[in-house]
Design brief:
By secondary structure, this protein is mainly alpha-helical. The protein is built from 15 helices and no strands. Helix content is 79%, strand content 0%.
Length: 321
Amino acid sequence: MGLAALMIIICHAPQYGISMPITISNLLQRGGLGVDIFLFLSGLGCYYSLSKGVILKQWYYKRFIRIFVPYLFMQIPFWIWKLYNGVFSFSKEFMVFSTIDFWLNHTGAWYIALLIPLYSFTPLIYKYLQLGNRMLLTGLMVVALIIVCMFNINIFNDTTHAVFNNLQWAFGRVPSFVIGMAAAPLIKRGMKIHAGVLIILPLIFYVAIHEFINKDTPTQWCLVPPALTVLIIFIEYIKNKKFIYHFISWIGIVSLESYLANIYLCDILKEIFSPLRANYPLLTNGYLEYSLVILLGILLSLLINKISMPIVTKLDMSIKM
C-alpha cells in the first residue's frame, strides 16, 4: 500500500507541469498503476472480511466510515483556505464532496467516487464468485467490464453522455478489484506461482489486447501482477533497511489520506506559485512547488490520520455494542 501511494504521488508530478524529458514523464505517469494496486489489495481485503460471515449492515458501515471520516477531515483545511480567500461555494463544495461532481464533470477525488458504488456492489460480486469455477467467472466479469468500458457510446444528451463516459473511465479500473477478490482464497491457502508467470503472461495479454483489439481498451489490470511481483521482491530487499521499510509502511497506513492531500495541495500550491513563476526562475521548472506538495502532503496525512482514526475506531466499536 505504501509503495502504491508513492507511485501515485510520483505519477502526479508530470500532470503538475514539472519540467522533465518526455521519456521520464511517460515513465512516471505509469505510477498511476498504484491505483490498480490499491484496488487489487482492496479486493483481497473485502473477500477476507466477507468470508468471515459478517452481517452486511455492519460490513457496509465499517467500509464507509473508514472512507468518509478521513475524507471529511481532509476537506476541512481546504475549506478553510477557500473561505479565507473568498472562493468557498457551499453548493460547489457539496457537489465535490458528495462525488457527484466527478460523475458530471470529471473533477474531484475520482477514487473515492469509484469506491462508493464499488463497495455497494462488492457483496454481490462475492456471491457471484461463489457460483462455480472462480477463475472462469472472474474472466467473464473482466471481459464484460472491458467490453462496456472500451467503446465511445453516444447516448441521449451531453450530460448523460458525460456521466456514461466517466462511468466507463472509472469502472475500467474495476477488473483489478475483481481479480483481487478472485485471488484472495488462493493467497490465503498459500498457493505459489512462479514469478516469471506473473510477469510474462500478463504482459503478453497487455500487448495482445493493444495490438489486436483496441488501443483504448482498459488494460491496467494486466500490469498489476508484474508490478506486484516487482514490488514484493523490492520489499523483501529493503526489509533489513529499517528506516526505509518503516517509512514505506507508514505511508501505507496513511495511503488514503496521502492520495487526497496530494490532489488538493496540487491545486492550492499551483494557485499560489503561478503568479510568482515569471519573477523567480527557480520556480519555473516546478521542482520546488511539487517538493512542497509532497512534504506538506505527508505531514497533513499524518495529522488527519491521527485525528480521524480514533473516531473511526470508536464508531467501529459502537456498531458492535
